[in-house]
Design a protein that fits this description.
By secondary structure, the chain is an alpha/beta fold. Helix content is about 40%, strand content about 15%. It folds into 2 domains: about 50 residues, RecR Domain 1 (Helicase, Ruva Protein, domain 3, Orthogonal Bundle); about 140 residues, Dna Topoisomerase Vi A Subunit, Chain: A, domain 2, CATH 3.40.1360. The longest helix has 17 residues.
Length: about 200
């Protein structure tokens, strides 16, 4: 950051700029908001950040964000244990849950295959998905990746990897335009996509 700010302000702006989509101007606005906030507000924000870092971890079964060993979805006996929706990250779980249409479980890959970014199958939770399928009990996998190149690449890889297992695989259907990220889709669009999912060849 330039020398126009006192060092503590410049440091705060530099740290805020490390967050996704936060450029220099947005970081400066946030920094000055925090400077103007009360000490109590600033302390609560700092404590909330530390609490998340200390208490949130991946679910043992699906890799969704959780406070306990299992996330609330995996721990819910009313969910359909035979239906598993495969998503890129926990934000996609939240988006699908908002639609209130899906009652199965999830598997969070922790990213998408992207050779350009050096992300291959070994860098995401593919092996654990394969094990869940091989262990039995999964009747259908819903491949709910973003409708972009990385999403398509990941879906095709999973189809090839799991085809021999005999598990039914479907993709989300109409309503999701190409290039759209799941987290930005509205609840109605996601619900219709879930209802109209199609078999994967």
């Amino acid at each position: 950051m330039s020398a126009e700010f006192a060092p503590p302000i410049a440091r705060l702006i530099d740290e805020l700029m490390k967050m996704p989509t936060v450029g220099p101007k947005s970081a400066a606005r946030l920094a000055f908001y925090l400077i103007g906030a009360s000490r109590d507000d600033a302390r609560r924000l700092a404590e909330a950040i530390l609490e998340v870092k200390e208490r949130i971890r991946p679910c043992r079964q699906c890799f969704n964000l959780a406070e306990a060993e299992l996330c609330p979805i995996c721990a819910d006996p009313m969910r359909d244990q035979k239906l598993v929706c495969v998503v890129a990250d926990a934000r996609d779980v939240a988006a699908i849950e908002r639609a209130r249409e899906y009652r199965g479980l999830y598997h969070v890959l922790g990213g998408l295959i992207s050779p350009m970014d050096g992300i291959g199958p070994d860098e995401i939770h593919v092996a654990s998905l394969l094990k869940r399928v091989q262990d039995g009990g999964v009747a259908e996998l819903i491949l709910a990746m973003d409708a972009n190149v990385s999403g398509e690449t990941t879906a095709l890889y999973l189809v090839r990897l799991l085809k021999a297992s005999g598990v039914k695989m479907t993709r989300l259907a109409y309503g999701l335009p190409h290039g759209m990220n799941l987290e930005y889709a509205d609840e109605v669009t996601l619900a219709r996509s879930m209802q109209g999912r199609r078999d994967v060849d």
